[in-house]
Amino acid sequence: MNKNDVLVEFGNKIRQLRDEKGWSQEELAFKSGFHRTYIGMIERAERNISLKNIARMALAFDVKIEELFINTNKI
Amino acid sequence: MNKNDVLVEFGNKIRQLRDEKGWSQEELAFKSGFHRTYIGMIERAERNISLKNIARMALAFDVKIEELFINTNKI
Hints:
The structure is a homodimer.
Chain A: H1 5-21, H2 25-32, H3 36-43, H4 51-61
Keywords (chains A, B): DNA-binding, Transcription, Transcription regulation
Protein name (chains A, B): Helix-turn-helix domain-containing protein
Domain HTH cro/C1-type (chains A, B): 14-68
């Protein structure tokens, strides 16, 4: 996997989980404690998120960290 | 999960995978392209590793990223 692909896949996963919850970026921002613009940058793969912030994102969605890396859209 | 616990768990997992392969920190450094001192800092939870570098670590071990977060030592 290309090192940048991982940011794209992660961003897509965050957007997918957010959509499944029916949350706006503002709502995820509120639940995670991140700024709304940071959520947008993560979803657009514009930020190389750190492990601590990945854990914080998992907590906001109430999922295990590994679940953020399982791409259920892949065949 | 505490945000710092995730660094400890990740560091332990890296050490565990490295031990399973029978690799020294130097060998993992060579395979991953990281400096040996960076490997040590990750294993001791002294660095907040980024997603790109997590992907690079998974590649070095030839595992999926999610496998770096599955703690097989937990009961």
